[in-house]
Amino acid sequence: GKGGKVIKSLRNVMKISAMKENKKIFITGKVAVQDETVKFTADSVEEMKIAESDSAERKFHIKVRIKRNGQPSADISRTEEVMKTIRSAPGTDTFDLIIDLPNSNGSCVTLRPKTNTVKYDLALHKKLEDALGSGAVEVEQAGF
Q1: Which pLDDT score is estimated for 27?
Q2: 72-87 and 122-132 are packed helices; what angle lies between their axes, rounded to 10 degrees?
Q3: Measured at the alpha carbon of residue 83, what is the angle toward residues 77 and 85, in degrees to the nearest 5?
Q4: pLDDT score, position 61
Q5: Which of 33, 60, 94, 100 has its CA 20 to 30 A from that of 144?
Q6: DSSP 8-state assignment for residue 68
Q7: Nearest partner of 62 among 8, 30, 131, 110, judged by Cα
Q8: For 134, how many CA atoms within 13 A lie in the half-sphere containing its CB?
Q9: Of the candidates 98, 100, 95, which has an alpha carbon nearest to the alpha carbon of residue 114?
Q10: Alpha-carbon Rg of the chain, whole angstroms?
Q11: 105: left (phi over 0), alpha (psi -120 to 50) or beta
Q12: How many Å apart are CA 63 and CA 60, to the nearest integer?
């Protein structure tokens, strides 16, 4: 009866609110137009799955600069923490590690791990800069 429809509607509202912003959704339902007023009743809501090749999302390439302090165990530990942070955000953006060499007047080495994909967002940016210092993360739009 009517109680079943209310529960279904409530479930759909909860589904919509649980979805992240900027997700593409597919809604099926009914549209009624009466005296220039449009009323839409959703019967179902589904998140649309879009193939990566169809996605128009921007792709990013990030450069993560790690300054060495000359203490190998501390440098290795810091680099491992950076990689752990990056690996916690799987995605299709790419990254390089830029390792500054101690006492070398600005010389550095660029490392590109075999698997160098990540999902770049502002939260990841903040985590990396919190660990490495302001300005340690440089972001470019991939393909440019």
Answers
A1: 65
A2: 170
A3: 105
A4: 93
A5: 100
A6: -
A7: 110
A8: 0
A9: 95
A10: 23
A11: left
A12: 10
The strand pair at 93-100 and 108-111 is best described as antiparallel
Provide the residue type at 79 as one letter.
Answer: T
Would you tell me how many other CB atoms lie within 10 Å of the CB of residue 19? Answer: 13
pLDDT band at 43 (very low <50, low <70, confident <90, very high): confident
Nearest to 96 by CA among 140, 57, 135, 55: 140
DSSP H or E run through 130:
helix 122-132
Distance CA 77, CA 7 (A): 52
Tokens of 105: 């007047």
What is the mean pLDDT of the segment spanning 15-43? 64
Residue 47: strand, helix, or coil: strand
**80 vs 49 pLDDT, higher one:** 80
Helices (H), 58-97: 72-87
Most confident stretch, 4-18, 24-38, 58-72:
58-72
Asked if 47 and 27 touch (Cβ cutoff 8 Å), the reply is no
Specify whether the backbone of 82 is left (phi greater than 0), alpha (psi in -120 to 50) or beta. alpha
